[in-house]
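User: Predict the structure for this protein chain, please.
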Amino acid sequence: MQKSTLSKFLILIILLLSFSLSIKAESNNSAVLKLEDILSGIDYYHPSLKSTELKRQEAKAQLMGSQSNFIPRLGNRFAPETYLNEKSKRKNAFSNYGELTWQSPYAFELFGGMRATNRDLLPSDTFTYPGNKGYLTTVKSSKLGDYTGSELLLGMRLPLLKNLLIDEFRSDLQKAKIELSAVELDILQKRAELFLKASEKYWDWVGAGLKYAIAENLLDIAVLRTGGMAERVKAGANPPIDLIEAESQIASREENLAKVRRDFEKESINLSLYLWESENNFKKPERDNLPEKITEPSLIDKDLQEKHLSISLARRPEILRLNFEKQQEKVNLKLAKNNLLPKIDLEIMPGQNLNDIEEGPNFMGSINVDIPLYPLKARSEILKAQTKLQKLDLNSSERIGQIKTEIDNALSYLETSHQRVLKARETLEKLKALENGEQIRFQYGNSNLFLLNARESSATDSENKLIEALADHQKALANYNYAIGKWSIPDF
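Assistant: Here is the predicted structure, written as structure tokens:
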């Protein structure tokens, strides 16, 4: 009779536990939080990624500033003056020159405009006034009265050596265009970093949640067992020490539950920093959002590993970023070499009178030469650019090596965690078998509550280790995805 009662008691515990697990599984299925949902939210709302994306606007602003150097400029020069004529009378005069200038992105500069002069003249009076680009123009009168003269001018300036292939304006424009492309890589790199951190926090949260559920179930078993044991002790079927043993298990498992509850709360808070619902709001995940289990592990085929390695070495954002920096520094080197050349500019400027003064159309041409005796600054800029290029080459070699080691470490992490899962599952199966055997022995009176609790604790520890190994494998997979550039190569 005693064995029959104990058997019914154990069966009741198992049925109640199964019913409790089924209810929790149904509630979990209602709003499961998937890793893909978190990563999608990061793409849309994470402030850190949005902050990095603002670099795109900064780069566009820099490009606009560089393009502004090639926008036509409108200027005007007005010069009033007074003078004494042959009759010693003070007269007023002025000259006015309006000009439109355009520096093209193809080395040459165009300029043109109209100048006008107004002055009181006597016969044979001559006067000189500022002309285009500072040149002086002399007008001789042929009649009395006020003189108003105007002339239409058009000119071009073309560098023959220095600034022919590149100049400061064009170099700034080229570097700004390169920087705009490089900023996109910074965004992809930040995205990959956030995805990696979010993935690790997600699986820590899932593992903590599953351990929390196991601790609750263990406590439920202890409470049910203690209630049944109290009835048996009262009936004299078991000694009072068995009730003390059962009650001590409740206290121990309540203590453990408090610990795992805190662990779960901590991981929930940590994960909330990656669970953004808008640009100004994030939320803490709840227990109802937990998945039922962790995805089973898998290994990556060797051929696929080689493919991933070649892709990542060629297209990881850090490598491409360094390549863009090299391009910018090559522009600096080209500009520095340009500054070594002598400055020789050809300037031509035809003009046409728009009045009846006997001046007629005119044409002016000049060659302007500016040669520094010793271009020390240009030589220093060349040396700095060459040194920077050497450093970037070394950085590229170092970064390629780092990427290789990152992939090797991620693969090692994957393989090791996979083996841990296999061994943890094997250990759990054996300990579960021992636990079931101990329950049968206890049922027939061949064991005691202390041994049964010990078997349960060992099996529970093993189950927790399996959860840790499964979560660790998923984190290893996240590290591998980061290392091969899965989250930072758009068409991976």
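The first helix runs from residue 2 to 29.
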